[in-house]
Amino acid sequence: MAAIEVQDLCRQYKVYRKQEGVLASVRGLFRREYETISAVRNVSFRIDIGEMVAFLGPNGAGKTTTLKLLSGLVVPTSGTATVLGHVPWKREDAYRRRFSLVTGQKEQLWWDLPAQESFRLHREIYRIPSLEYQRRLDELTDLLEVRRLMSRPVRELSLGERMRMELIAALLHRPDVLFLDEPTIGLDVVSQRRVQDFLRHYQREQKITVILTSHYMKDVEALCERAIVINKGIVIHDGPLAAIIDRFSRHKIIELQFSGNIVPAELSRYGQILETRFPRVRLQVEKQKVSECLASILAAHAVDDISVVERPLEDVIAELFSVGGEVPTGSVGVAS
Amino acid sequence: MSPTELTISEELSARLRLKWLVLRTAIEERLVYRGDFAFSTLVRFLPIVTQIFLWSAIFENDAVRKLKGYNFGEMVSYYLLVMLARAFSSMPGLSTGIASSIADGSVRKYLIQPVDMLDHLFWHRVAHKLVYYAVAIGPFTLLFWLCRDYFSGWPEWPVTLAFVGSLLMSFAIGFLIEAWIGLVAFWFLEVSSLIFIYMMLSYFLSGHMIPLELLSPWIPFVDFLPFRYLAYTPAAIMLGKIAAAQLPRELMIQFAWIVGLIVLNRWTFVRGVRRYSSYGG
């Protein structure tokens, strides 16, 4: 059953185009030029109840705009969307009680007060019965390991601790849909890992529907099986996360361990040498030349160990969205 | 969580509980910076001293001389009462707070959560004022006691009641005007010049600078603006400058301004959010 259904969603912005220089600034006082930018173009997808989907794309791709549309913060230029049967931009209380948006800006908590005061306010805002509230709070504070921090003013918490408190604030009312926009941005590795573990556990337990945007592929790999990739406002992939590598990676990595401490000098003719750690070498070669390379290397050199692996998702995504990189905008994969 | 169906009384009680909790939480928040708060509260009493010296020089210690119906004693008591009224109607930081939340996007928490932003800010401001009065009551009492000779005694209780009512309504009018200026930021992200104009206008037109009797020959429409209810009206009621028979009418007009400003704020908020949603959120 669909939790989120989006059909041909478009969102355009009119942006003031400022010319360079003082004269142009003065001219701008009387006459301004605007350009129309399409942040989201004909985006369509469907997410079932209980799915956790990654929303990937470079900066300015339209990810956050899509989340804003689904949270009701922005109205679309055209197209339709329903979340849990509600049209988000109508901003009905019945809908607002059923979802949460967590952003890296961490803005739900009162800065000068301990987080527990903000949580109490959330209890009233979302009308959570007292016993239920206490049970959920205990559960979330234990899972996120923040019980001892509950009485400390939010401004005195570290970034990672604040984010965990934000997650509690977002989940206290048991939303059916959770939008996570860069939830681990700026966090250290330990905090990132803790947030990932929590989200994975919580989503499995509660079966909530989650859309996650993140620039950290470790987040995405740890949490999502399905990914929607968006670039320049257009969905370019919708399907299993692993399929991104199949579709968009043109290379594979061959890991070799040579006999003795000698590494052949002419390896670079097979592909790009990524790492040399005697007697080990990591070589990036074009997908279709893998078997040919392996045959040549094995025929010419003594090799103790050999393995062929996919490129890390992070590298594939980085290449996909790098400046000048060719981003296919044609067919869209089938949702899993 | 699916929304629970509530009866009207349960709905009302849930809303009241939320207002109470916002008030309580905001009081706790205000008390965090107690040092800065106490200092700024005390500093606000300094201008009254200069006003007393100024009017003392204008009246040249002539106790009988009157200026548009005010003798020196009444003039001093007018300024004391205006100071009290401004303690109710001034809203430091309200407009800029709303405007900056619109500019930096933090306003969206009010759009995402099932809360009423204006109601939330109102109770936040009530808390702000309650903490202020708790600190200021000492200096206010001392100042009024020191200046007790300038007052001609307590007026009749209906006048005192009208004064209290007018003071409370001046709080609502001050809140609504400044909240509205903040909401204008949905259209113009920068509203500091608008706030400056408002400050200047309200200083003149509220009777904060001089009693409105001195101003009305020059600005005849001053009585038709809401600003007079921010300072002049409560003070004039207490000093008996408004006839007892006129009090119900005066309070009704003040109340009508509140209703009008609520409508204006609601309309501006709905239109503003629509514009905000159209331009990017």
Structure write-up:
The complex is a heterodimer of chains A (336) and B (281). Chain A is an alpha/beta fold and 336 residues long. Chain A has two domains: 2-10 and 43-246, P-loop containing nucleotide triphosphate hydrolases (Rossmann fold, 3-Layer(aba) Sandwich); 250-310, Alpha-Beta Plaits (2-Layer Sandwich), CATH 3.30.70.1150. Chain A contains eleven helices and 13 strands. Chain A has helices spanning 22-30, 63-71, 93-96, 115-125, 130-143, 159-171, 189-206, 217-223, 241-248, 290-300, 313-321; strands spanning 2-17, 33-48, 52-56, 78-83, 99-103, 177-181, 209-213, 226-231, 234-240, 251-258, 272-277, 280-286, 303-310. Chain B is mostly helical and 281 residues long. Chain B has one domain. The mean pLDDT of chain B is 88.
Short characterization:
The complex is a heterodimer of chains A (336) and B (281). In chain A, 34% of the residues lie in helices and 30% in strands.
